[in-house]
Design a protein that fits this description.
Shape: globular
Strand content: 15-25%
Helix content: 40-55%
Radius of gyration: 18 Å
């Protein structure tokens, strides 16, 4: 738990729509700025195992807890949406004076990235270079609503019973559901599962689960915009996917290969939904290879 506590202790804060947002900042390398966007239902802590390697490569590595997650504010009366999470990331980048950046994203963060890509495309058409995405690397996520296999707890959160689940849900039920989406040989320890639970519950966050889960409906509503942004992305893009993920594993990769021109995919055969936690060395190697080959080649 010492490293977990240290992650929080070394965090910074900024304000988004009147609410305090937790974020981590690091980096001592040569390669610009990297924005790390976490998934549901966890937080920036998801990146801790790859963090040292990322900070060696990039001059700045920025990883916020999105509003409603982790150690950020979790207001009860708030309109949570993918668009607002995209706003939050853009506000943070602008506040830090950053205009060009790379993205590494996972799960829910993939969807936020798709919205950021759509906005990037609109700015490019308008000749606006105030914020420019330079590359995108995605980990397991629901990139296509038709291939997203929601877990029972997600379906329950999205149902009329969702608010009740937020009140009565237990740590045992939460951690059991979360562990089930990891690979059979890469399960998290009890300590790691407890850390995920703390991130979910801090600041009475679990009461908002039924609001945060609306991203599944967002994906269906904005499918053409978000799938189109990924299909037409003007920057190098790589997918690193744990194939044993029951939510967005091998079946999602097949759809990705069908829809994305010249798909760049790294498949992790024995890994589930959280590659950066389950196989951090493999993820870091695949990510750094992406930057050393495709991204660097484009830049030259």
């Amino acid at each position: 738990m010492e490293e977990f506590a240290s992650w929080r202790a070394h965090g910074r804060r900024f304000t988004h729509r009147g609410h305090q947002i937790f974020w981590r900042d690091g980096g001592d390398g040569p390669d610009g700025t990297l924005l790390c966007i976490h998934g549901f239902p966890t937080a920036s802590w998801d990146w801790h195992a790859v963090w040292p390697g990322l900070c060696e490569r990039f001059a700045r590595v920025i990883a916020p807890d999105m509003i409603g997650f982790g150690w950020s504010a979790k207001p009860l009366n708030y309109q949570y949406s993918i668009a607002d999470q995209a706003d939050m990331h853009e506000n943070l980048l602008r506040a830090q004076g950053i205009s060009r950046f790379h993205i590494l994203a996972h799960d829910y963060g993939d969807t936020v990235t798709q919205e950021l890509l759509a906005r990037d495309g609109e700015r490019r058409v308008a000749g606006d270079e105030s914020l420019v995405i330079e590359s995108v690397c995605l980990l397991n996520g629901g990139l296509f609503p038709e291939t997203h296999r929601a877990r029972p707890v997600q379906k329950l959160l999205a149902s009329p019973l969702g608010p009740l689940l937020g009140l009565v849900g237990t740590e045992r039920a939460f951690t059991s559901s979360l562990a089930a989406i990891f690979g059979p040989d890469t399960k998290p320890s009890e300590e790691e599962l407890h850390q995920f639970w703390i991130l979910w519950c801090s600041k009475r966050g679990k009461r908002n689960g039924h609001k945060l889960i609306r991203y599944m409906a967002d994906r269906r509503q904005h499918r053409e915009r978000w799938v189109g942004a990924l299909r037409d992305a003007p920057v190098p893009t790589r997918l690193i996917d744990g194939l044993l993920d029951p939510v967005s594993g091998a079946h999602m990769v097949r759809r990705y290969r069908e829809l994305i021109p010249e798909p760049d995919v790294v498949e992790l055969a024995k890994v589930g939904h959280y590659p950066q936690v389950e196989a951090p060395k493999d993820v870091l190697a695949a990510f750094l290879d992406f930057h050393a080959t495709r991204v660097a080649h484009r830049a030259s």
